[in-house]
Amino acid sequence: KREGDGATPVGEFPLRRVLYRADKVDAPRTALPRHPIAPADGWCDDPKDPAYNRPVILPYPGRCENLWRDDDVYDVVLILGHNDDPVLPGAGSAIFLHVAKPDFAPTEGCIALKLEDVVAVLSRCVPGDTIVIQSPDES
Fold first, then answer.
1. Is residue 42 part of a domain?
2. Predicted model pTM
3. How many domains does the chain have?
4. HSE-up of 46 (CA within 13 Å, CB side)?
């Protein structure tokens, strides 16, 4: 996995925490830590920035993604522990499990499901859980 390659990373990753749009959805039922998304919340995806693959407050001088989106895909977000311990510049950032677009268009490396499926998955998650992502030829 490299920054910007559009690929979903393969491996086993810890489930970190859940972000959600409190103005649009109820807090998901889960044993994982939950935090509402605020309009100024972002995620740095600039490999040259010291905050790479970390949450940031907008406006932010480095390249970053706005977590407060109008297209509903970040209404509920599960942050996966990909490239975060330690963070390696350029090894990929902002790898989440989140809500799919209505047409299920491909993501830029994340996992996307229907909202009700994201909520169902979260209801079964507890701290210490991991997700295993396999390549298609490993299935």
1. yes
2. 0.96
3. 1
4. 13
Spatial separation of the C-alpha atoms in residues 120 and 139, rounded to whole Å:
23
Burial of 5 from C-beta contacts in 10 A (0-12 / 13-18 / 19+): exposed
Do 54 and 87 form a contact (C-beta atoms < 8 A)? yes
Q: Which domain holds residue 121?
A: 11-133
pLDDT band at 139, cuts 50/70/90? low
Whether residue 36 lies inside any domain: the answer is yes
Are the CB atoms for 53 and 45 separated by under 8 Å?
A: yes
Between the CA of residue 45 and those of 16, 60, 84, what are the distances in Å?
A: 18, 11, 12
- Mean pLDDT in residue range 92-114: 98
Indicate whether 2 belongs to any domain.
no
Residue 50 has pLDDT above 90, yes or no: yes
